[in-house]
Amino acid sequence: MRAILNFLIKHNHWFLFILLEGISFVLIVCFNNFHKATFFTSANSVVGNIYSAVSDIEGYFNLKDENSTLTKHNQELLNEIESLKGKLMEYEDSASLANNECIIEHNNDYRYTVARVVNNSTNNVNNFLTIDKGIAQGIDAKMGVFNEKGVIGVTYTSSDNFTVVMPLLNSKSAISCKVKNSTFCTLRWDGSDIRYSYLIDLPRYEIFENGDTVTTNGYSSIFPSDIPVGTIDKLEDSADGQSYRARVRLFVDFSDINKVYIVGSTKKAEQDQLEESIKKK
Amino acid sequence: MRNFVLLLLAQVLVFSQIHLFGYATAVIFTIFLLKLPRHTTKNELMVWGFLFGIITDMFCNTPGIHSAAATAMAFFRNPILSAFTHKGLPEDFIPGVKSMKWGGYIVYAAICISIFYALLFTLELFAIRYLATLIISTIGSTLLTMLFIVVAEFFTPKK
């Protein structure tokens, strides 16, 4: 008995070593499999607040660029208002002529939220970014994230006020897309160049050309359809030769993201429940 | 304690954000582990390493990866340090150029740091097909961190 105790005391550093490494490995495995390890990520409120303070300071350095983008955007919006005014006048004329009631269809299927990116990485195989909106603002896991240029990614895990987003630049990310409104396929990243991602399993019976636009297909209830992703840049045979693999030049510049929009389907729960009920049978 | 907080803030807000050529990232909190006195126990070293690692992980969204690598490096630090300790040294000393001379300190630091990075990138990439990236990243990051360790030696206040 004494010998065993002595042995344990003498080698106590081994047990501490195994304990600490054990905790680390549990964290590694958990974070890859579950969405519950929020505490150990930048969605943790202390970390999130530090990042958001730093990003406030950094924000001042980009004011000049931001201003010019906003001015440009304003100009475009003003132009649009003008053209819409013109059209409205036309329609009012024709409507009063025909004496018909004008029916405006409201699209209430999706709800949009604006958020600021407080942390962003692009240099790992599995990148993540953190945004400053969370459960309190109605953000949850599995919601689409995009900006004015195109698709950015899908929300991964949320705390009260912060959310970690899995961008296209993550080897575990898979976004369902369509090409030319007809072909449906999956977008995956190979972990190398942040400007390009890959469409896998493109069917051979379709004809694709470089420059074809890739957009979201709206099947998964994460994204509405027709949010731009990128353009086909290079076509090649897949490894097994059964289908095409296309390199896609992404519209979004991931090294420069500031404001993003989060889109949530108001009917997502209903759709998921329905689809889930089929799987159970 | 003050050093701990300052090093951590510098690590997560500055150094972890810089990826030189996409391969090399300096993890400067390892300096803290290297500079702890000779007689620091293994347990104490590992707790420091784990704390540094886990907090860096929280900021980098890599739960467990930095902490696993730092704990392992802390575990192997004392045996490696013993190999470079010669008889002229006092019983308990702070590892550094002053006590160990350039050659001894650099080699000691380089071995510890490369153990850290080899583990870090193995855990991060976790696939044999990234072997080339793993080797380049390990060597690149080790060299970059060694640069900061050498610079830090010049700025250590002389007593």
Our Rg estimate of chain A from Cα atoms comes to 24 Å
Low-confidence stretches of chain A: 99-106
The whole-number mean of residue pLDDT values of chain A reads: 79
Percent in strands of chain A: 25-35%
Residue stretches of chain B low in confidence (pLDDT < 50, at least 5 long) are: none
Structural notes for this entry:
The complex is a heterodimer of chains A (281) and B (159). With 281 residues, chain A is α+β, with helices and mostly antiparallel strands. Chain A has helices spanning 2-10, 12-33, 45-61, 63-98, 268-280, and strands spanning 110-120, 129-131, 144-146, 151-158, 163-167, 175-179, 183-188, 196-202, 213-216, 228-237, 244-250, 259-265. In chain A, the strands form 2 sheets. In chain A, strands 1-2-5-4-3-12 form a 6-stranded antiparallel barrel. In chain A, strands 6-7-8-11-10-9 form a 6-stranded antiparallel beta barrel. Chain B has one domain (2-155). Chain B is built from 6 helices and no strands. The longest helix of chain B has 29 residues, at 97-125. The two termini of chain B are 20 Å apart. The A-B interface holds A 12-13, 16-17, 20-21, 23-31, 37, 40-42, 44, 47, 50-51, 54, 119, 121, 123-125, 128, 130, 164, 191 and B 12-13, 19, 22, 25, 41-43, 46-47, 50, 53-54, 57-65, 67-68, 71-72, 75, 123-125, 130.
Descriptive tags:
heterodimer; A: 281 residues; Thrombin, subunit H; 6-stranded antiparallel beta barrel; 5 helices; B: 159 residues; mainly alpha; 6 helices; 0% strand
